[in-house]
Amino acid sequence: MQALGYKEPTPIQAQALPHALAGHDVLGSAQTGSGKTLAFVLPLLQTLILSRRQRPAEQHGKGRTTEHPVRALVLVPTRELATQVEKAVRELTKFSQARCVLIIGGASFHEQLQALRKGADIVVATPGRLLDHYGRRQVRLDTVEVAVLDEADRMLDMGFMPDIRRIMHALPKNRTTHMFSATIPPEVARVVNEFMREPVRIAIDADNAPASGITQALYPVNSGEKFELLHFILQKTKIKSAVIFVRTRSRAEQVARYLEVRGVHVAALHSDKTQAQRDKAMDGFREQKHQILVATDIAARGLDVRHISHVINFDVPLHAEDYVHRVGRTGRVFSEGDAITLMGMEEERFVAAIERLIGTPIPRLAFPEFPYKVAPLLKAYKQPVTQRFKFRRRIARSSSHRFRR
Question: What is the mean pLDDT of residues 8-33?
C-alpha cells in the first residue's frame, strides 16, 4: 500500500474493509469510481496470506491437470474489467508469493492452462471462459476460500445468471462471498439470498446519482448534424481525454473514422474487435497516445482511467442506468469531470427516463456560433416526440377515414 501511494481509504473502503477482514460476507454498492476494487482485493489478499501460514499441503483431485487449487475467485462481466482487476491484484501482490491468473475469452486458452498449471492462488475471470476450463477439469473450484462478484448487476444484465449459478454451486459452502456493484436491483437481491450468508450491507451515496464532481450538459441537435457538432465540441472545448459512447459497433467505427479523417487521435473499442485489438486500444488510451476513445457500452462499467476529463454521449443510452455508468468514467475517485450528451429529437424520451432516474433535469445548452440547420429547443418537450407523432398519425388516419366514408 505504501509503495502504491495509498494514504486514506475512500468511504466504501473505510466501511467495507473492517467487515471483510473480520470474515463477514459483504454486499457493497457505491458510485462508479469510488474504489470498490480495492475494497475487495485487500481483504482477499489478507485472507490468503494469513491462511497460507496455517494450511497443510493441498491434496489434488484425480484427473485434475492443475498443480495447485484456486483459493480465491473474482468474477467480472467484461474482459476489460477483468484485465483491470488483475492488474490491481498484481500490483498489490508485488511483495507476496500469491499468484494471480487471468481467465478471459479472446485470449490464448493454452497460455491460460499453462498459467493454471503453475499454480493459481487467485483467478480473475469472466464466467464463460472459466466454465470452459472447469468443464475440461483444468481448474478446481472446490477449494475456493473467498469468492467475489464484481459489477453483479451488469453480469445479470448480460445474461450471465445461469453461468454464475453453476459456478457458485461448484464452490464450497464454507467460503466467504463478497458482492460489489454500482446498483442493487431486485435480481441482485435474489442472488444475495441464494449465495451469501447474512451479508453486511453497505451503501455509499444514492445508487442512481452521478458523482458530485461531474458537470452534466445536454445539447439538443438534429440527428443529421451530430457528427458536425461533435467535431465542433472537440475543437472548441479543452478536452484532455474523452470517451465517446455510441449505441452500436458499426456506429463506433463510423464515428472513429469520421474523427480520424479530421486529424483526431482516436481508438475504437467494441465487441467485434479481437482481444489483441481491444488491449491495444485501451493501452494506447491509457498511455494518452489517443486523445479519444470511441466505445460501446462495453466500456461503461469498471473502466478506470484517471485522466478522462470528458464523457460524450454521441447516442443517448436506451437504458437510464447506463447513463449513470457512462458518465461515471469521468470524475473518478471524487475528482471533477464533464458529461456531454448530444440529443436528437427522437431521443427525448430516453433523456426523460434518465432525468427521472437521477432525480434532476440536465441543463439544455447550445453553441451560438455553431451553424445549426434546425434551431435547438432548449427546454424539455411536454410529451415525448414519438408519442406526439403517434397522436398526429391517429388524427390523420381518422380524418382520412371520415373523408372516404
Answer: 88
